[in-house]
Design goal:
3-stranded antiparallel β-sheet, about 15% strand, globular, binds pyridoxal-5'-phosphate
Length: about 375
Amino acid sequence: MISFLSLKDVTALHGAEINEAVSRVVNGGWYLQGKENEKFETNYAQFIGCKYCIGCANGLDALIWIFRAYIEMGVMQPGDEVIVPANTYIATILAITENGLKPILIEPKVNTLEIDDNLIEAAITPKTKAITIVHLYGRDAYTEKIGSLCRKYNLKLIEDNAQAHGCKHTDGRITGSIGDAAGHSFYPGKNLGALGDGGAVTTNDYDLATTVRALANYGSQKKYVFKYTGRNSRLDEIQAAVLDVKLKYLVDDNAHRKMVANYYYNHINNNLITLPDRLNDDLNVYHLFPILVSEGKRDALHDYLEQNGVGTMIHYPIAPHKQECYKEWNSMRLPITEQIANEELSLPIGPSINEEEINYIINLINGFK
Ligand SMILES: *Cc1c(COP(=O)(O)O)cnc(C)c1O
């Protein structure tokens, strides 16, 4: 059986060092807000190319804190609009609605699977305060056009970098350093994954950084003094220590993903299957390897691969606007987003899968009718 992603194998790649880091924290007796967080935050900020990194409990919180901080800073207020791709993981949208802001859903391009920058300007109103881009599947979603719209209309650019640790834009900037602020997730299955939940905000904005840090720590900047009604949303020392180990290997692990993707791109040959436009390797860290399966055969391909011992997943089977939690959008028509939800299938990819397994998967896929 080739599982979609074996976290056990991924952890084992750097197992000795991870175990050593965990033991160091366990035996050190200091479990929150200590040296491990400081060290990881410094190293991750440097890796991304930002002045500030604030560790927090998970990726959803990271995004929630960015919007909440802008509200506390007076940059946004509840009721304001935030432009966001319609085809994203629900967390991106939840972070906006959680703050009383209004998501304006924008269709992606079917050949890139990323937000269609041609549709953004028409959606901007006097209430628009930000554009959120999502580097979905590990692909760079930023375009110069998005940057110039932000400047023209004085909008904040917020990046959801949960799936794209180490991804670059064509100008060499690392995703997460391009916008005004970025939310990162260290969910175990992400390219940089913890052994539990974790997240971070990166930014070059000092006011935003200090506000986010306070919000994620009960709203406090000084012990027992509360400036905001925050929450407990901290990254623990064990996760920070694990992440600091894995950060050293992120570039190599991403290179392995690129090698796997290269195999897929060069050898998948089946008329039912469309691969997204191939980006230069710097612009894609292949968090996932999405394919589109036509003629309503996506679920059949999933089952066929499963029967032959290959695990695949769908990202994501129900678009946010079709979810029960957002009933008010259920009648909206977003054909590209819906097409992707109906046709997308993610093939196994990750730092621990080997050539033999990839060849086996490719042969199966090419034989599918
Ligand atoms: C994983 C993910 C998140 C949320 O991260 P958690 O750490 O699971 O809360 C947000 N946005 C996207 C695009 C994600 O893939």
